[in-house]
Amino acid sequence: MTDPRLLIVQTGTTTLHGDYPAWFERALGFAMPVLKAHQGEKLAPSLERLRPQGIIVTGSPLSVTEKAPWMLRLGDDLLRIGARGVPVLGVCFGHQLLARAAGGEVVLNPRGREIGTVHVQLTEAGRRDPLFAWAGQTDIEVQATHLDAVDPLPRGATLLASNENSAAQAFRLSQTVAAVQFHPELWPEAMRDLIESRKDKLAEEGLDAQKLRSNVREVRAGEVLQAFARQARST
Q: Which of 77, 83, 101, 142 could serve as 182's disulfide partner, Cβ 3.0–4.6 Å?
């Protein structure tokens, strides 16, 4: 089976494990073209040249609450592309970007940082959603790291998953546009290294980096990306 033509929209950068696009390529098992939106690259030229069957929007150390012009433009562009029938999946920053563009709000989470291997609960709609068809149960484990959260969801959005830290862990705006707050592309080693890289900040916030690292486990949430790839392939 041929790999779908997916475009990665990069919204920030990291020095860990080869940067955000490499994380998704590792999770999906194939290379993908990258549009560096955080560096000013715009969607239209890439869409015309590549004609992607799907778009994945990465996480970022930046915050959607900054409302930088490129963020506002990108969110609106992604919604228009989704409305034209191209599947779009937002991850973490991408999740928040899509929510804000659709009329929701993004805030500094009053419950504090979420980081490590955590549990989220699928809603009834989430259990039926193609992104989570693999789960087979309501409670799933995922890798997460974020300070901001979507609150409230855009009007008309369907909540797919939630937990005590963040009410909106996954949502769907339409048949083609969906988003997850957690990181389906992360694997245990990367999650532990990410926690270690933030140990000083975690200590300032009263969190125990060593304990968080020891609680990191292998999870199946990467299957969200596989499900999205299947959807894109079928378009």
A: 142
Instruction: Let me know if 38 is a catalytic residue.
Output: no
Beta bridge partners of 161: 122, 170
Q: How confident is the model at residue 58 (pLDDT cuts 50, 70, 90)?
A: very high
Is position 54 within any domain? yes
Domain count for the chain, please give it: 1
DSSP character at residue 56: E
Evaluate whether residue 124 is within a structural domain.
no
The candidate with the shortest Cα–Cα distance to 9, out of 78, 68, 80, 62, is 78
Contacts of 74 (CB under 8 A, 6+ apart): 9, 11, 37, 43, 57, 97
User: What pLDDT does residue 2 have?
Assistant: 87
66 in catalytic set: no
Identified catalytic residue from 92, 95, 114, 146: 92
164 in catalytic set? no
DSSP 8-state secondary structure symbol assigned to residue 66: G
Give a yes or no: residue 201 inside a domain: no
d(CA 177, CA 90): 8
